[in-house]
Amino acid sequence: MANLERVAIDGQKPDLTIMLDLDPVVGLERAASRGEAADRYEKEKLALHEERRNAFLAIAKAEPDRCAVVDAGQSQSNGELFGHDDQEAFLIRTWASGRMHHALLFSGPQGIGKATLAFRFARHILANPVFDAGSMDDTASDALLRRQIAVGAHPQVLHLTRPFDPKTQKFKTQLTVEETRRISNFLSFTVPGNGWRIVIVDPVNDMNASAANALLKNLEEPTPRTLFILIAQSQGRILPTIRSRCLQLRFEPLNVASMHHAIESLHLEGNRDAASLVAYANGSPRRAAMLAEGGALEVISAADAVLASRKFEGAAALKIGDALTSREAEPLFFLLCEHLLQRLAQFSTGAALSGLTSANRLAALHSEVSNKLAITRGYNLDKRQFLLETMRELHDGVVESGARHA
């Protein structure tokens, strides 16, 4: 990697090098969405992409004053939206009416298209500054506009997300107040032609208390021709005062037809069964893309088999845990954790609908596991031990409650 850097810049180190960091799963998804055959590099194993990514991040860590890492894994340049026709139509009508609310709150599960629509709408506003009822068609967007937004270089768009920490080589677990304070600086500049300024916070759930309060001040005193788009995975972790100042749009997981369309458009089938991807993706194209890589379907199927067994299969659970302890397997680890929480939520709902008294216990177990996962992630604790304990707790809790057959 050092040789590659030396060839690329010929020994001349600029004052600032901006590295666009992209999750390989997202990058391969975007490459597939071009509709062209994969090139040699794109056909490489996921582990190789992860290794190269970590090598570049190591360079950034070694020279933090010279290298700035920007999260390019969001939806700034991904224009293809699957489903959510009603939400898009509502935004177009609202924009055309000339009575645009100053703050929008997009809420719904992760990976279903909220950020994609947020950036599509931003491009639509900047490409059509005069209130217009035209379609939100990305093919009409200026190529330069798309590129500027994609790399965070457009002067009228501010995208706030969790910053990269060069010490840990990871993105921080919270969106900090230092990031939120950038809003005031962004809004202090004059926009040519009396244009719009757009602030996208993704996700607002990641804000700590100080950051949320700093955002609230901007929402309470909005500047003219400024639009805030807040993206949330759950409304429960957002300050009520922030929610009350936003026009709320709810996003639901994609239906089966939209998921099949997404899987076909992103070329995710490969040697996978599209029906299996749809079944496990829970209405999320992003989740489907992750399931299509690195044996994810096999791991999740194995975990489901452990939960379905009459007696807890410790050896099988241990095998799953051993396979997910490496840094390269971290995306799959969190994908499995998300799946286990969803399964627990399904068991809890089923028990409640069947009138079982165990519903409250299962709901409490869901909260306990969510908290343990946050601690494991925040403090980089033993993932293997977390998975073993979690699968045992889920298995025993479901068996004792009788909710499996509810």
Automatic annotation (TrEMBL):
Q: Which GO terms describe its biological process?
A: DNA-templated DNA replication
**What domain of life is recorded for the organism?**
Eukaryota
Q: Which GO terms describe its cellular component?
A: DNA polymerase III complex
| Ranges for domain Thymidylate kinase-like | 10-75
Q: Which Pfam families match?
A: DNA_pol3_delta2 (PF13177), Thymidylate_kin (PF02223)
The protein in question is named Thymidylate kinase-like domain-containing protein
This chain's source organism reads: Darwinula stevensoni
Taxonomic lineage per UniProt?
Answer: Eukaryota, Metazoa, Ecdysozoa, Arthropoda, Crustacea
